[in-house]
Amino acid sequence: MKATEKEFLTLIEAHKRMLHKVSRMFVEDIDEQKDLFQEIVLQLWRSFDSFKSNSQFSTWMYRVAVNTSITYIRKETKRPDRQRLHQSVDVADSEPQTEQELQLSHFYQAVHELNPIEKSLIFLFLEGLSHKQIGENIGISEVNARVKLNRTKDKLQQIIKKNGYEF
After folding, report:
1. CA–CA distances in Å: residue 122 to residues 1, 10, 35, 52, 135
2. What confidence tens digit (pLDDT) does each residue in 101-135 have?
3. SS3 label, residue 7
4. Alpha helices, DSSP H, located in 48-115
5. Could you say which DSSP state residue 53 is in?
6. Contact 102, 167 (CB under 8 A)
């Protein structure tokens, strides 16, 4: 294995939680999350040579992941053979979820109602980035990031209340 491949695999392994979170933020279905995750890794590999150390690897990785996710969603929603099942399917063998898992599930369901920029803001906030770092990642000012994040948090709370989720 070449040094470049080893370096890439090491970086993917170190940041795979972030990639799983991005996948979960952008698509609901578990199989689609796996497909999106693979698509993100593929795009990261294809563009790995273009990574310049001008920024942190995680920042670059995040941007590629979000852009890939947005493209993936656009392609999937245009496919005529894709129909979503909007009913909850009761699986007899499914294990009961813990309260924390249930809350996390409700949170992600609410996040799916946000637009891609709002999803990005929430994701970066949950990753613990400062308003300045969020702005740099998205390409807006620190003040604009703070305002948009506060509006997005309010919108998310309204979605959660509207859907009757309990926290």
Report:
1. 37, 26, 22, 26, 12
2. 888 888 888 898 998 889 889 988 988 889 998 88
3. helix
4. 57-78, 99-111
5. T
6. no
Q: How many other C-beta atoms can be found within 10 angstroms of the C-beta atom of residue 119?
A: 20
Residue 79 Rama label (left phi>0; alpha psi -120 to 50; beta): beta
DSSP 114: S
Nearest to 75 by CA among 121, 118, 119, 43: 43
Tokens linked to 21: 């979170």
Domains of the chain plus CATH, in order, are 1-79 (1.10.1740.10), 99-167 (1.10.10.10)
Q: Rounded to an integer, what distance in angstroms lies between the CA atom of residue 119 and that of residue 32? A: 17
Task: Please report, to the nearest 10 degrees, the dihedral formed by the alpha carbons of residues 78, 19, 33, 9 taken in order.
Answer: 100
Amino acid at 124: L
Q: Is the pTM of this model over 0.85?
A: no
Q: What angle in degrees, to the nearest 10, is found between the helix axes of 57-78 and 30-47?
A: 130
- Angle at which helix 116-126 crosses helix 142-162, to 10 degrees, equals 100
Q: Residue 152 in contact with residue 122, Cβ under 8 Å?
A: yes
